[in-house]
Amino acid sequence: MSLSSVSDEILKFTAQYSLYTGSIMFSFGVIAVEYSTFFFYSILSGFLPVVIASSFSMLAYHNVRHIVRRQLPIVRRKLDKQITAMVLMRVIAYVCLASPYNAYRIYAINYPVSRSMPVAYAVGRLIQAILLSIFITNYTINFYIFIIFSSRFRRQVKLVLVKKCWEQWKYWCCHINNQIEPVNSETRNSQIESEENV
User: Fold this and answer.
1) Which residue ranges in the chain fall short of pLDDT 50?
2) How far is it, in rounded angstroms, from Cα 129 to Cα 124?
3) Cα separations (Å) of 179 from 90, 154, 168, 173, 182?
4) What pLDDT score was predicted for residue 190?
5) DSSP letter (8 states) at residue 72
6) Where are the domains of the chain?
7) Nearest-CA neighbor of 135 among 4, 11, 6, 32?
8) Alpha-carbon torsion 26, 31, 36, 37, what sign?
9) Do residues 42 and 107 touch, judged by C-beta distance below 8 A?
């Protein structure tokens, strides 16, 4: 269950429950909206992951800068720089892909569109679906970011896909028996005799 669905379920529960209890539930509905707006989407799924990822990427960058001053092999330094570049690009991609969805969810919770206005409701759901798709690509884009920014990762992927997986696939799917089998003389003689009898 995703983070947004939990918050949406809380809001649905408050809307359904408010029909039965009236004004008592109205205060809980306001609390749920404030919780979603000011804590869940803004801090828990928006600001906090960005701050944590950014701080650790800056620490990694700082460590790589200090590694240059140490007496380490050049290959090790190059690998550390590549890893740091991958981490920085990952954080930038996370911020760019997660922020629009979180901002829209805060807006949609604070300014809900009634189902009695079907066009506006459908447009809102379409925007939410598009932004959710962009948010979900956040989890699938790592492979492509690493392929773009790391030559070592590209070599490893090539090794695994071409050398190992492709060879296995060729063996399983295109297995051709190239062995020469001796012709059985008895079956050949019986075929000749049957042809003579005809």
Assistant:
1) 17-27
2) 9
3) 51, 37, 20, 17, 10
4) 60
5) -
6) 3-149, 154-197
7) 4
8) positive
9) no
